[in-house]
Amino acid sequence: MKIRSAEILISAVKPAQYPEDINQPEIAMAGRSNVGKSSTINMLLNRRKLARTSSSPGKTQTLNFYGINDEFRLVDLPGYGYAKVSKSAKATWGNMMETYLSGRENLVAVFLLVDIRHKPTAQDKQMYEWIKHFGFQGIVIATKSDKISRGQRQKHLSIIKKELEMEADDILIPVSAQNRDGKEHVWSLIEELFRV
Ligand code: GDP
Fold first, then answer.
1. Which ligand 1 atom is at minimum distance from the Cα of 51?
2. PROSITE patterns from the xrefs (predicted)?
3. Which of 11, 32, 34 for a ligand 1 pocket mutation test, highest count of atoms within 8 Å of Cβ?
4. Whole-number Å distance between alpha carbons of 94 and 190
C-alpha cells in the first residue's frame, strides 16, 4: 500500500461526529490500553507521531478516525483494561463500542490487538467474542513481536490461538512497530478485505 496521505479526521464519541462519507471503507483496531495500538497505526502509515502513543489512564476515550489517501480509514478504538476505571466510564466505553461496531455500515473489519508476550486476558477474550458476534472475521494482530525471540514465537502464537479459541479460518499476524515486522502482511490483508 502506498500511503500518499494520512491525517486525523476526528476524535468522536458519538455517531453524529463520525465522518459522513460512508463510501470509504473502515478498518478498526481494538485492544487493551498499552497493547501498542497507536504505535502499530503509526508504523502502518509510516508516520512517527500521527496516533498518540503511551496514552494515560485518564485520557478521554474516543474513536479516532484516520483518513488514508482520501480512500479509506483506520479507526483507533478506545482501549480497555485499566483497573482503575469507574463503572460509569466502563458503561460509556461499552455503549460507544457497541454503537460503532453494530451500526457502522462501512466497517469492513475489526482487528484485535494482543501483546505477543502475554496470555490474552478475560477482556481480550470478550472483545474477540464480541467482534465475531457482530459478524466480523476473526483477525488478531500480535504486537511487539521484537520482544520475543524467533524460536519462542510459535509457542506464543499457539497460546494466543488457544486462549482466544481461534478457528482455522481466523487470522493471526505477528507485528512489530519497532522493526516493522508484519507490516506488508497486514497491508496485503487490508487490500484483500477491500476487494471482497
Ligand atoms: P496503545 O495504548 O495501545 O496505543 O499503545 P502504544 O502504542 O502507546 O504503546 C504502548 C507502549 O508499548 C509504548 O511504550 C510503546 O513504545 C511500546 N510499543 C508499542 N509497540 C511496540 C513494539 O512493536 N515493540 C516494542 N518493543 N515496543 C512497542
1. 4
2. G_ENGB
3. 34
4. 26
Q: What cell does 37 get?
A: 495500538
Residues present in the chain in total: 196
CA of 55 to the centre of ligand 1 (A): 10
124: Cα separation from own chain's centroid: 12
Model confidence pTM above 0.80: yes
pLDDT at 61: 87
H helix runs in 134-182, sequence order: 150-163
Is the ipTM above a cut-off of 0.95? yes
In this predicted structure, what is the pLDDT of residue 55?
Answer: 54
- In order of 76, 86, 105, 150, the CA distances from 111 in angstroms are 10, 26, 17, 23
Chain centroid offset of residue 114 CA: 9
Residue partners of 23: CB distance under 8 A and separation at least 6: 106
Residue 54, pLDDT score: 53
Mean pLDDT for back-to-back runs of 10 residues, the chain (196 residues): 94 96 97 94 92 62 95 96 84 94 97 98 97 97 97 98 97 98 98 91
CA distance 82 to 90: 10
The answer to whether the CB of 67 falls within 8 A of the CB of 19 is yes
Q: Which cell numbers hold the place of 187? A: 497491508
What are the structural domains, with CATH classification, of the chain?
6-195 (3.40.50.300)
